Structure formats: structure tokens, C-alpha cells
Batch of 2 targets.
Target 1
Amino acid sequence: MSEALPLKILVVDDTLTNIKQVQAVARSLGHEVVTAADGLEAVDRYRSAAPDLIIMDIMMPRMDGIEAARRIRSFASAKWVPIVFFSALDRMEDVLHGLESGGDDYLVKPASLPMLRAKISSYARLLHLQQQVLLSNEELSAWRAEVEEQNRLGEHVMRRLTDLAGLRDPTLKHFNLPADTFSGDLLCAARSPGGVLYVMLADASGHGLAAALTAMPLTQTFNSMTMKGFPIGSIAQEINRKLKSLLPPDRFVAVSLVAIDVRGQTVEGWNGGNPDVLFITAAGQVSRRWVSRHPPLGILPDAQFSAQTETFVLQEPGQLLLCSDGLIEAESPEEDRLGMDGVGEILSLAAPDLRMEALLKGMHAHVRGRRRHDDISCMLVEVPVERRREVRVADSAQQALSGPVSDWRMTISYGPQELRGTDVVPSLLGVLAHVQALKPHQGALFLILSELYNNALDHGLLGLDSATKAQAGGFELYLQQRGERLANLREGRVDLAFHVHEADGLGVLDMEVTDSGPGFDHRNLVFADADDEDGLRPHGRGIALVRSLCREVTYSGNGNEVRARFAV
């Protein structure tokens, strides 16, 4: 223990000899002494000198020590100032009367010098401890104020990061219940240029501010890549790459990513470390699960990362449920976990439009007020099966130019290595977005380029047959064949050319896509589309879509060369 600091001691007595005796002892111990001759003067000296310790007689003229102690105690003070009565009154009732009036100790005169020294030294130690406590309290108050300011700033930033327009999509319902001030769970939703709804539920390891900071880098990556049309596997890989470079080895983020393409009638999922993603029918049955087939993000190096997703074709409307492990691990007072079975039972008993409310209510009924030890988040997404919808061309694309269009050209060629390792359409769209005349048309251009490029790659180079998708389990088989053939592609290329210019008073973008393969029967796909009145077949509708968006679409040769003119 560190040495006690010097005290300022107020000695109060109407006898000078007594004052000198106490003064001598106190000064020999290194303390400062101020004096008063009676209680009234003692009160004034207390207020002016702010002593640390008071040693006071009781029987004095004008005001005795008892009344002086009462008045001193009536003053508000942030620190404790001990009052030690030093009196010749030695009866028990005198001692009790002194302590009850505000005294902290009582010495009977005449006291031995060793006793007086011991008392002063004892209070010096106590007051030193009090000073340390006061300093600690000041530090804690300053720290608390700083933490509250950091929390205020953190809550503002997290609110801005998580209050995304995508989460207000009418097909979504969600909740996020933090175990602490901040939640380490993150919910994101956004639509791609082609209108596909991407959703992400991320659960950072731990909870509180540390977990929230871990999850923060995901938001920008998810939104920027979604808006450029990157597939969810590429988004997962980029987030993993970023987290791996930023986080310490003991930190990671479990992530569920899902892309819902109503127009294409598919749902694609990637799950790394989160509970199963469920597809629930209108009747309340779980008809599909995306189990976790990957580790959480931020663990594997890029060379070992797998971006493989699972896709299924929509046969009936339903809802997708994504949740963090905080939901299924929510415990009752008896320490029983809710579990996926409990979640499924709650959902099966509720009407589709009331399932989110039922799940939240059922979770609270299960835990019955037990304190949460982990963040709990959940997202429920409506997934309709719709008849084919007409895609309208923007009015501005049908009108004469309001101003000149700069002449702009670009050609690019992709060989086997680039076709295997590049997300071609998002990369091209990123370049086209810098052309002023094309900026308002990113959604339509994404749809057009996706169809023309995928036809050239899938059918022209890889020789895939879209009719495979119509078989039972055909979509999964189609994707499997695509992955295998693309991995084994050793020759062939896809060439693309773009030309922005004026033609017949209109600004236009001419696109040309050529592949080096034998071509494909594009006429059959067009005719098949005409027969698909309900738009429920999972293939063959893309060329008609491109024709609806473009002014002209012309196939040449065996279908390995296509030219499209789009009005800007």
C-alpha cells in the first residue's frame, strides 16, 4: 500500500494546552494543523479551510462540540471528513451522545501520546483509501461518459448501416434482438439489376460491440456486389477474402446468402455456419433445407474457399426462413432449447401472413423472460410463383434524342481461363455504367447481357441443353453439368462488342456477342417460349425477354452470333 498523504487537521478546543498537544503530535506525523477555540469558530474554519480530519472538544463556550458536529454534518459534501471527539466526558452516555450527533470516534482526555498518534495515523490511512476511491470514481465516471458517447456514435453508425432500403422490401419481415447494446447479427437485402432479391443473414462470433464491429464490413460488400449483379457465391467469396484479411484468427462470421429469382423461378442458397435455411409451403410444411455445407466466413484462405451454391426450381409459393443460432439455442428457465423442431412447429401452426409474429411470440413464450446470452435474428421472405410478367422498355428509350450521344466503342474477348474465373456480366456492367447515356438503363442491360452471354457460353461453348431443366431434378443436373464442363473448358472464346452512337435520330447501343462454338438452336427456344402461355417452364424464356427490351435482335449463322440494338 502506498504511503498516506499529509492531512489538513482542524483541532478545536478552548484550552490552548490541549491544542498544542494535538498539534505537536499531528505535525510530527507530517500533517498540517488549523485551529479553532470553540464550536462556532470550528464551523467557520470547516467551511473556509476544508479540513480532512476534525479533532474536537465537546465542552466549549459559545457553541459546544455536539452542536458544531451537527452543523458540520448538515453541509453537503462529496467527501467524508471524520470527526473525532476529544473530551474529558467519559460516561457511556456521553460517548453515545457524541457518536449519535455526527461523531465518528471518541477519545477520552487525557489520552496517551501513542494512542493519539495511532488514531491520527489510522484515519490518515482511511482517508488515503477514500481519496483513491474518489479518484477511481472520477475515472469510472469519465470512462462511463466516454463509453456512452461511443455507444451513441456506434448506435448511430450501426443504425445507418442496417436501416437499408432493401430491408423495407414488401416481401420481407424480420427482427433482430441484441443480447447487449449492439447486435453481432446483421440483416441485409437488396435487388440485383435484374430484379433478383438477394438476402443475407450474418452472425458474427460473440456478441456486443466486438461482434458488431466484426459484422460491419459485410454491408458495403453485399450491397455493392448485389447492385452490380454478382452471384451470391462470388459475394460470399469476396466477403470471406475481406474478413480473412481484417479479422484476428479467433473471429469469424456465419453467413446465409439467398437469391430469389421470381422471374426465373429459382431460389439459390449458400450457407456457411448458420442454422438451416428453410423453404416453407403455404400449408406449413418444410419442403427444402439449405444446410450449412461451408465453414463460416473469415476462416479459410481464398485458395480453399468454395463458392458452390444449391439451387432449386420453384414449384409452389412459400416462404424462406433465415435465422441465427441465437433463435434455435434460446433456452427456457429449465435450459431446454427451442431448436429447429420448435421453430418448425411454431411456423406450421400459424397462417402464412402471421408466421413472423407467431415465431417472435413463441420464442418469448419459450424463454419466459430468461436473459438472452446471444443475439437472436430472423428473416422471413415471401416467395411467390408468378405468371410471366411483361417487361416494359423505359419511355425514354422510345423517344427521340433530347441531346447528342457521344460515339463510344468497346470490344472484349474472353478465353477459357477468363470464362472460368470471371463474373463476366457484372464486370461488363461496371464498365458500361461509366458511359453517361447508359447509366439510366443498368437493369435492362443486365437482363439483356445475362441472356446473350449465358446463351453463348452455355449453349454455344459448353453444349448444354436447356430442356434438361424440365426434367425432375433437371435444374440441379443442368448446373452440375455446367460446372463440370466449364471446369474442363480448354478452348473456345466469347467475343463482345459495344457501340454507342446515333441512328435515325435515336441514341442506340449496338451489342454483338459471338462465340467460337458450333452454335445452338435459338429458333426452337423462341417457338417454345410462344407455347409457354403461363410462363411456368424453367427454361426458354430469355430470348423473348431480350426481344421485348431491344429494338432489334438478329441471330446469324448457327446461332453463335447475335446482334441486338437497344435504344438509349
Note: The longest helix spans residues 113-162.
Target 2
Amino acid sequence: MKLMKWITSAILAVAAVSMAISCDEPAPDPVKKDPQMKVTPAEPYAIPAAGGEITLSLMSNVDWTVSGAYDWLTVDPASGAASNYKQEVKVTVQKNNAGAREAVLTFAADGLTQDVKISQSHAFDSSAPANALFYEALEKSAGSFTVQDVKVPEQLGFVWEHSSDYKCMKATAYENSTAKNHESESWLISPDIDLTAVADAYLTFEHAGGYFGTASEEATVWISKAGGEWEPLIIEKGDYPTSWTFVEAGNWSLKDYVGNKVKLGFRYSSTTKKAGTWEIRNVAVLSGSYEEVIVPEIDPTKTQWMELPATDNDAYGYYSHSFPMKDKVYRNYSFAWSQNDLVSVWVAYPLNKTYTDKVVDRTDAFKYDPLLGKDKSSNPGSGYAGDYARGHQLPSADRLCCREANEQTFYGTNIAPQLNEHNEGIWANLEDKIRSVANASDTTYVVTGCTVADATEFSTDTDGKKITIPTAFFKAVLVYKKGAEQEWTSAGFFTEHKNYAPNNSDLKAVSMTIDELEEMTGLDFFVNLAGKIGADEAAAVEKQNPAESSVWGL
């Protein structure tokens, strides 16, 4: 009992000492949490031109605010208190009646910041590039352009007019009925183009024409800040058309004009000695800066793209095209370029409904490949000399998902001289068959090529450059269908370059295994397949006979 009293007294004494200490010393500060904030998603998908709403999710253990003033969107709420729970922030985007636009909202909380980018599609038609701030195809009318006449010949009554035949705006002061040239000056002027909310922009368009005295003085491009004086933009002489084939003019930086609203003016003038004809289409002002494309060398084993064959980088240039669509960049096609023959010995590309679903019409934009430039690329512009079609290796119908993807299929690097009946007969049937198989699969990988090693015949392109006529055309095809009993199937096709019977559909007669096609062409197809499914399985796929496969139905 005495022991218990002693223990109790001791405890009370310790407590008293502790109380004395706590009274003399300040209490410690409460533990302060590190500030934390996170907003998701950081970069939402682009809002369509029709407008819409995004709901952002915010976690912040400290008070927060959001800044960024734009008259085309609202943020609710724009601030909030610390919370242990998720908070919703709604961003409402108004309908867009003009070019593509972006907003950056900055969330801030106790020294922390996070930017959220919101983009909205332009209000132009689907043929306009995704980054268009202004676009007029001029295919059906003058669109938003207006004509301002300074001097118009009485005999003509106009200078600028829309051409339904050539789907462009055309200016001329040449009088056909009397074969006379007239003095004139007339401007094709754009509406205001808003560059107030972009960091950089550039102008591009296509034009054709001829019969000028001095084109660089008679067909000129001007720009003005709203209400200001007109200033000239210089078209390089090499960017003027030398025939009636449309060519790209310029890629002018408009960096000096950002932060303003501007107008473009296409000024046509003529004299009684010379009155040329100027045709214009696809006028675009695009956000960002234009940079010359750097030609890459592609190692198929590094990219792991399933469609790529092995190649000899010393013998051929090895290049690739891609294109932007919505919020992603897609590879279009790779090619091995023979500079001696001015044709691609093969073109390789993926194929599925993402590429083939029709959004745009065939563009017929035949031209040289800007990746190589005018001197090194062939120019299929107005066609080849002789009885030769401009034959696609990657078909135009396989790239109808957006304008840029389709236009790239008309580059000279994807075109080869092909007998008309071959192109429209057995070759067209083969393209249709492969497209049908691809649309029923997940992804199909295709290598299209031509044989030029023993060729002895030649044609010329639009610029007069000598083009080798291939002696044969071929396709190697690898089909992937997820979950199928046999996920990977293959087929080879080889056609001599000759006129087959009209509407020939006997594809079985020109079909073979990939192994057999490799023997005939000397190429090693689908070099990345073994890394995907193993060497033995890949070898078995390349031995498949398409004539015996239900996938092909030959």
C-alpha cells in the first residue's frame, strides 16, 4: 500500500514538472503540409468549331486561382479553397467562326503553377490544314475575298473572276475574241485575318498561269495591318509556274505581323503589250513557323514500323512522310528513292480505316515532292510523255482521311509512269482487293514497288526530266487481325508492266508467297516481323500462299 502511494506521488511530481516546463516554453508549431496541386487532363483534346465544354479535375491542398483571359471561353469557378477532395472546373468554349485558336489557362497555388492548353478547330471545310488561321480553297467561288478594281478595260468589264473549269480565281486582261492585251490593275483582297493571339504564322497558296511580260511585277502579293499601308511580299522567281500546272508559292513568315489583324491582297496588272493570266487557289495562313524539311535516314529496325523492308542506304535515298490529323501525327508512307531513275523502287505504308474513311475528296494535287525539292524530285504535274498514266504506288483512295494525307500521295516520289490499261485494269483491281482486306482487319502493312534494274524505255515528266519506265510492279502485304485464329497472314503479287486483258480480275495468277516475291525482287520484306512474333513464326507467315487463304478469296 505504501508502495502504491509512493508511485502515485512520483507520477504527480513528474506531471507538475511537465506543466511547469510547458508553461515556460512556447508550444511547437503545427506540422505544415507541403503545397500540392494537380490538374487533369493537362492538354484536353481539341474542341470542335461548334464549341463545347471541358470538365477539368483539380486536386489542391492549398487555395488556388486560374488566370488567362479569352473572350471565347469561360472558366467556372476561377478560384477555390484548399480541399482534400477533387474539385471540378468547367471550361465552356464558344462556337468558332474563324481560324484555329488556342488558350492557355494557368492554375496557381502557393507558388505552384500548371498550364492547361485548350485548342479549338477552325471553322473552315475539312480540306483546310488543322492549323489554319485563314483558308479559302476558291474551288467554288471567291469565298470571303472581294475584288477591288483600279483600272478595268471597258471591253472586258472585269479582270478577276471565278473559274468553275479550273476551280480557282483567275485574273487576265487578255481579250480572246480580238487577241488584244489591255492595260489593267485589279486586286483580290481577303477579309481581316486575326493574328492577335498567335506567336507566329505564315502564308502559303498555289498558283498557275503564263503569258506574262515580267511575272514578278505583274502578279504580286501584298499585306497590310488593318487600316495600314500595303506592303509587298516577294514571290521568288523560281516559285512562279512555268506551265498551267499549279505550284506552291512561297511560305512567307508573317511573324512581323502577329499581334494584329491583317489583310492580304493579290494584285494583278497588265499593259497593252502583255496581259498574262494568273490563277490562284488554296490560300492559307497557318499558325506556327514554316521550316524547311530535313530529310532523315530511317533505320527500319529502330522505328519498328512493321511495313518497312530492309534497304540499301547507299543505293537509294530512304525517306518518310507524315501528316497531322486532329491531335496526333500519323506516318503516311516511307520510300526508297532512285535518283538515277526518278522513281521510288518501293513505297511502304500502314493501312486501316483510320486512313481510308472518306473525309475529303481526291485532290489530284500532282507535283514534285517538297522533301526532295524541284531539282531532285520528278514532277508528274501535267502528266508523262507517251501512253503512260501517273500511277500511284500508295493509292489516293487509301488516304482520304484528310487533305494533307491525300495530297502527299500525289507527290512525284509516290508516282511512276504506268501503262494506262495496266493502271486502270489489273492494278486497280489489286488495289481494291487489298483495301477490302485491310478494312476487314486491324492493320494491314503494304510495300508497293517497281522493277527498274533492266529497264530500257524512258519517258519525261512535266519539267522534261528523264524518267525510267518500270518493267514490273509488285505488292507485298502483311495483314494483322487481332484475336483471329491466324492473326498474321501475308500475300505477294507481281505484275509484268504490260496491258493485261481489259478489266482483268485474275489476281490469283499474279499472286505468290512473300518468299517467292523476295526471290524475284531481291528485297527483304517485313524485317520487323520476327522481332514481334519470333523468327520461326515469321518464316511460316512468309511461306503462306494467298491462293489458298480464305482471307484473300482468290
Note: Confidence is low (pLDDT under 50) at residues 1-23, 292-296.
